[in-house]
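Work Package 4 report. The design task specified in the project plan requires that, given a folded chain encoded as structure tokens, an amino acid be chosen for each position. We show below one input record used in the internal validation round.
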């Protein structure tokens, strides 16, 4: 599958996106809030970026995750991704135990992207924090989750749904004895593709 190939070659994918955007390594690193050395390692395949860094880089390059992981010629007006066909965003399948499954990569010009997220029980570890353009919706499917957003904290139970502007720092962690599972929709900010950052 093309999406799996793109994730396996994530460094090359990000190098192409940066070059297409016309940015230097230094400029891209500064805008993504990472070091130039780290971004160089990502592009050469010597470092696997976290989902937070992947999101920031997509934002910096003004592309969606679908743009990164599925070539335009491979998309169609409809996307059906079976439960066993979801693509893990992070190569090793976990990031502090977080599992991100991309479930909407086949649709041409999507206005939203769909993920299934498993949140682990963290004991003393700092969870990944996110801040990106657009809007996000999280529907908790299983377990309980503590969600922090711009200094506010919410505890969510199965069936609870939260929708928010994603440019405010946010993160979630499972609470209780079991991991939490959520259905996540991100609605990227649509930008003029011809506009330079």
């Amino acid at each position: 599958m093309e999406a799996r190939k793109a994730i396996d070659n994530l460094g090359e994918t990000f190098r192409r996106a940066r070059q297409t955007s016309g940015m230097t390594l230094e400029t891209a690193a500064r805008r993504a809030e990472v070091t130039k050395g780290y971004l160089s390692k990502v592009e050469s395949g010597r470092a696997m970026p976290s989902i937070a860094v992947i999101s920031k880089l997509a934002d910096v390059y003004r592309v969606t995750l679908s743009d990164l992981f599925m070539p335009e010629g491979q998309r169609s007006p409809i996307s059906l991704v079976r439960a066993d066909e979801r693509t893990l965003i992070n190569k090793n399948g976990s990031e502090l135990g977080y599992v991100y499954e991309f479930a909407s990569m086949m649709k041409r010009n999507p206005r939203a992207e769909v993920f299934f997220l498993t949140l682990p029980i963290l004991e003393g570890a700092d969870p990944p924090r996110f801040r990106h353009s657009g809007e996000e919706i999280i529907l908790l499917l299983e377990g309980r989750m503590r969600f922090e957003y711009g200094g506010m904290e919410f505890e969510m139970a199965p069936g609870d749904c939260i929708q928010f502007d994603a440019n405010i720092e946010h993160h979630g962690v499972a609470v209780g004895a079991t991991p939490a599972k959520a259905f996540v929709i991100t609605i990227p900010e649509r930008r003029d593709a011809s506009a330079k950052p």
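The chain has two domains: 2-72, 76-187. Validation will be extended to a larger panel in the next phase.
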